[in-house]
Design brief:
This protein has 538 residues and is an all-alpha fold. Among the domains are: 192 residues, no CATH class; 82 residues, no CATH class; 34 residues. The protein has 15 helices and 2 strands. Helix 3 crosses helix 4, helix 4 packs antiparallel against helix 5 and helix 7 packs across helix 12. It is elongated, with a radius of gyration of 55 Å.
Length: 538
């Protein structure tokens, strides 16, 4: 209640008359016209809270609200500090008077010492003194409470001032609401306490405020409407500019596409001519290959070999194969000798450890289980490899299905493949979409018309290609197949000192091929060996 009273007194002092530092606020102020507020200086003889709120709102739209709000809060803070100092001085004065009265009372009581039955002494009445003492205590408590309230207000205002720069918009609304509440309470108390003359004056002032607010609102609405119209014009101009840019880009893209399509058509015609030339050269090479194959067939009948590369390497790497066979024999003999020594030394070691037949049987069983464990590990690795390949295949199918769904979207919408279970449904739907696409294509272009157009285009292409094939310059510039004369030159070139490098590469290729063959044979024989061991154990 003390806080409300202080705020009401501050507001009343600012509304009823100028204070010590507020004389300039109550005087009529003439302002320089700004933007569309050219006639506003005729209506600013008296400000009120609503007109200030409207002006702050217009200034906030134009970016000038922060400085005005900070200045208002600083003014309020200075007023509250001044009032706090006045109340504090009054409280200190009353406290000093109370102490003086208590000292005088103690002095007179100690000096006089009146009898207990008397209630007055030397002009002082006990009851009056007690009442004054109670009143002084009450006033002191109120002053202390007011002091605490003002201290709390000062602390809160200092804290709010530190964070005012970040929350200026929110605090503006809060201050407006509180100001309206305080003004309503002041108006209610003034309407009760003031007389008829003051009511008439206030009514005239309110009428003037209404007229001023109406004029300010009208001017502010006109300014806001002009600003909105200007921004709408800017937006429309930006949209027109974007449409112009889109049209220019579309026209440039169309020209580039037409130029690229023409270039691709020329390239396609040249590639078709090249393909026909290559086809003709392929037929010539096929005849030569047939003659070479007949020669290799006679070599197969003589040597007993079936693969062409085996025959070639047989004649090229005879010395190397003989050397490899000698090395293999030496390694096999060394391995056999080592196995014989291990077999000869094994019974003596077994006899030293345990000579019982049950132990030997246990060792055989352990060996069989170890072999079975090794087979299971191999099978697990194979299954994991198959699982990896299957996973990669399913992922590739998903990506392909996603791309195909986008490609066939203009024909018919297809559900996207989210998991592996959606693939059968996707392929079933794909068959229907393909049939529908073919039916639509046949309906748009019948078979008779398509055959006629194709035959005409083919005949024209063959006539153009025939002319180009008879052109020697074209053949010399675009031929990509090595002719028979060039093959002979290549065979002669192979007889130079680099022949050793070619032979080494052929030898490495043959060794790698043998290794792959051996791994394939072992992979095929592994399940059979497993089945045989299972039957032996049973």
């Amino acid at each position: 209640m003390a806080l409300v009273a202080v705020l009401q007194s501050g507001r009343r002092s600012s509304r009823d008359g100028p204070g010590d530092g507020e004389a300039d606020v109550a005087k009529p102020s003439f302002r320089r016209p700004r933007h569309a507020f050219g006639n506003r200086h005729l209506l600013t003889f008296r400000k009120n809270q609503f007109s200030e709120l409207v002006e702050r709102t217009v200034d906030a739209l134009k970016g000038n609200i922060a400085e005005a709000s900070v200045e208002d809060v600083q003014n309020v803070l200075s007023k509250i500090r001044r009032q706090f100092d006045e109340v504090r001085c009054e409280a200190d004065r009353k406290e000093a008077e109370l102490l003086t009265l208590r000292q005088e009372i103690r002095f007179w009581e100690s000096e006089a010492k009146p009898p207990e039955d008397q209630d007055h002494y030397n002009g002082f009445v006990r009851k009056a003194v007690v009442e004054k003492l109670g009143e002084a205590s009450t006033e002191l408590e109120q002053a202390i409470e007011t002091q605490r309230v003002y201290q709390h207000m000062v602390e809160r205002l200092l804290r709010e001032q530190r964070i005012l720069q970040q929350k200026v918009l929110l605090m503006e609304n809060y201050l407006d609401r509180k100001s309206r509440e305080v003004e309503a309470k002041q108006h209610f108390s003034r309407r009760i306490n003031e007389d008829k003359v003051e009511k008439i004056v206030k009514l005239e002032m309110l009428e003037q405020d209404v007229h001023l607010e109406r004029t300010v609102c009208t001017t502010a609405i006109s300014d806001l409407s002009a600003a909105i119209e200007r921004r709408r014009h800017d937006v429309n101009q930006g949209e027109d500019f974007e449409n112009w840019r889109y049209d220019i880009a579309l026209e440039a893209a169309t020209e580039a596409f037409e130029a690229t399509a023409g270039r691709y058509r020329k390239i396609y015609a040249i590639e078709k001519l090249t393909g026909n030339c290559l086809q003709r050269l392929t037929f010539d090479q096929a005849e030569q290959s047939q003659a070479t194959e007949d020669g290799f067939q006679r070599i197969r009948e003589v040597t007993g070999l079936t693969d062409v590369m085996d025959i070639v390497h047989k004649f090229l790497n005879r010395d190397v194969e003989h050397e490899q066979l000698r090395n293999t024999v030496r390694e096999a003999e060394a391995r056999l000798h080592q196995l014989r020594e291990e077999e000869a030394s094994r019974p003596r070691e077994d006899a030293l450890v345990d000579a019982k037949p049950e132990t030997r049987g246990l060792g055989v069983e352990v060996t069989e289980f170890e072999q079975m464990l090794e087979d299971i590990r191999h099978d697990q690795s194979d299954v994991q490899e198959q699982l990896k390949q299957s996973t990669l295949l399913v992922d590739s199918l998903k990506r392909w299905a996603h791309q195909l769904t986008k490609s066939l979207a203009p024909i018919q919408e297809m559900k996207a493949v989210q998991s592996e279970s959606d693939l059968p449904r996707f392929f079933h739907h794909l068959v229907q979409v393909v049939h529908e696409f073919l039916d639509r294509a046949h309906a748009e272009m019948p078979d008779v018309r398509l055959v006629k157009i194709t035959s005409e285009a083919t005949q024209k292409d063959f006539s153009d290609q025939g002319k180009l094939l008879h052109d020697k310059d074209f053949m010399r510039s675009n031929c990509r197949i090595v002719t028979a004369d060039q093959n002979v030159k290549e065979e002669r070139r192979k007889k130079d000192p680099q022949a050793g490098e070619d032979e080494r590469m052929d030898m490495e290729f043959a060794n790698e091929r043998e290794r792959v063959k051996k791994e394939a044979v072992d992979r095929d024989l592994r399940p059979r060996a497993k089945v045989a061991r299972g039957r032996a154990r049973n």
